[in-house]
Design a protein that fits this description.
- The chain is α/β, with parallel strands linked by helices and 386 residues long.
- It folds into two domains: 8-42 and 284-383, Aspartate Aminotransferase, domain 1; 60-282, 3-Layer(aba) Sandwich (Aspartate Aminotransferase, domain 2).
- It has 13 helices and twelve strands.
- The strands form three sheets. It has a seven-stranded mixed beta sheet, sandwiched between helices. Strands 9-10-12 form a three-stranded antiparallel beta sheet, with no helix packed on it. A two-stranded parallel ribbon has the order 1-11.
- The protein is globular.
- Bound molecules: pyridoxal-5'-phosphate.
- Pyridoxal-5'-phosphate (PLP) is lined by residues 36, 97-99, 123, 168, 172, 200, 202, 231, 233, 239, 242, 244.
Length: 386
Amino acid sequence: MNKEFSANRTNGMGTSIFATMSKLAFEHKAVNLGQGFPDFDGPQWLMDEAYKCMKEGKNQYAPTQGILSLRKAISEIQQKYYGMEWNPESDITITAGATEALYSTFQALINEGDEVIMFEPFYDSYQADVILAGGIPRYVTLQKPDFHFDYNELEQTITDKTKIIVINTPHNPTGKVYTFDELNFIAKLTIKHNLLVVSDEVYEFLTFDNAKHIPIASIPGMRDRTITISSAGKTFSMTGWKIGWAIASNKITEAIRKVHQWTTFAVNTPGQHAIAYSFTKLDEYLPNFRKEYLDRRDLLLSELKTTSFNAHKPLGSYFMMVDIPESSMLNDEEIAVELVKNYKIATIPPSVFYGKSNEGRTMLRLCFAKSNETLIEGAENLRKFK
Ligand SMILES: Cc1ncc(COP(=O)(O)O)c(C=O)c1O
């Protein structure tokens, strides 16, 4: 075919690194610490509830904004855990995972040429969504070892074209949990420059040690400037259910719903009912959920001590970054291919999550949402790499 049919906006968008690494892992029968989802199921009672909902006939289209009982449950959680008041009728939209919430939000807010600041390493859909919406991504680097950012760098990245700052806390891929000081600084700049914040909080219930998740919307002056995005997939270890949401003040929600309506229209009905039910059990569910992930994090950290990969201890999410041994003289992509082919261990080379600096070349991302056997076997394979 000599005619180019694909739209220009798709130029430069390749296959995601997750698909590439998972394919290699499969071909080489490697232990997969790359792919970012659990290798186990969420709770049995939640699956039973979904099945019950199907048998009860909750199988036709849901309202486009999502079923009211789920929106109410989300509003109650926001009240109970963060002291935030959101109207389920006008401020909350159920989407096909956080991925669609992000897409619909960026489509709803960005005009051609608007600049959007994101912290690198970033969750890769932010960059793609901003470009698809005609926006221009700008980057601020989270720096090793604790993945802090330089306040001056952030301030200097703001121009008169800046419209949005994107944050993700707890953070994929570093496990950083933004501190109150950091969030407060971002909030001050947002208010000073009349900006918005898109805050991706899909790991909101997955924090460790003394780290505390703070929604930036709860900082004074930020409620009406923040679009908070989250998802049930991580909290209930059911990433394939794809039930997410966007929370924002009425006017912004109206714009998001316009895009959502013509993107997915409505999200799977029995799943929404089952998640609404699961939120009534959140208090009793969370302690064990956190403990299990904490144990997995600590197991992997302790196993990694006897490898040549130095780990950066995560305070949230189910990811951690490890340094590539300098003696290897390999960058992240080279070593990821070497490890999967010759050491049977799949990881994610994170340089694709950077738009500006070369920091990603020096690290690999590991996911610890895996069974103990997988974590131990994965570390064993890494140990063989000298
Ligand atoms: C930071 C972050 N945001 C969003 C998503 C996508 O969430 P969902 O599966 O609900 O679309 C992920 C999934 O890995 C993620 O890590």
